[in-house]
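Form 12-C: Joint structure prediction
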Amino acid sequence: MQIDDMIEMINEQWTDIYYLLHYTNKDNLTHQAIRLLQYIEKNGEATIGDLAEHLAVSHNTASEHTKRLIKKGLVSKKRGSLDERKVFVVLTEEGRHILYRHTRLDKEKLKKVLVQMDPCDAELIRKAFAILSEGAKKCLR
Amino acid sequence: MQIDDMIEMINEQWTDIYYLLHYTNKDNLTHQAIRLLQYIEKNGEATIGDLAEHLAVSHNTASEHTKRLIKKGLVSKKRGSLDERKVFVVLTEEGRHILYRHTRLDKEKLKKVLVQMDPCDAELIRKAFAILSEGAKKCLR
DNA sequence: TAAATATATCTTAATATACGATATAATCTT
DNA sequence: AAGATTATATCGTATATTAAGATATATTTA
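Section 2 - Result
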């Protein structure tokens, strides 16, 4: 199989999997909120400047987004100890929970699929995800 | 490994993979537009009523969304032959292309990852995606 | 001490999203 | 054939989201 054909198939399957297995009753969370929360999750914490840069918006906008998420209880902030000008934005547990509902596969759905398959297939999937995410991190991070 | 732990790991890896490998310079496409285009892609075509139901909005809203996407050239419509009241909305090639940029992994990034890994690892990934998407279809469709 | 940095707030404007009211055309029911 | 139902389209209205310039405050650096 040609690599490009394989990539095309993987991509189609990727979207099929998400389409079928994602959470469907989600709290309303805006697109930029999701992006912001996810950046924080993947990086552990973020300054307003980080967020502005990552979202490709002005610092004012990033600050406003953050303010709204703080109000909703999805993030909190702590002032930097080395440089008190800096504010580090971190996820609350509620924020993490809400983020997962917007970005992850539905646990119950995924479980249903995995328990109904041959255990060595499930193991293959486990391994494949580990390899692919590791590969992605090595190559692109 | 406990199934729930495995699911947690898969989910974390799932989001890591997407975070690292998705297209990053995307044309501006609204959240509802993406959802609408994707519904059409996964189903081949859709009526306004289908779209309204899937998006959980009124038919007026679905019709307006569709109108805007038609204007952008991302979808087109054809009147049903059995029932001419019905309009079937289908993706244009441009629509498909734009949708893929918002929902799929970046081909070049994915390729970079796959060619740098052991070929049997790549084969494992190919197989795993096929199995998982097939499993999802069987269980949840 | 002045300049630079980091963030916060306010104001303004554009865009996204939604739905009720209304209208038209097609199909179904009586 | 007429009336009712179905499917969609358009218009008007409203709210939420998004964005950035102007301005302000606090902290750090030169």
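Section 3 - Comments
The longest strand of chain B covers residues 75-79. The domain at 25-104 of chain B is CATH 1.10.10.10 (Arc Repressor Mutant, subunit A).
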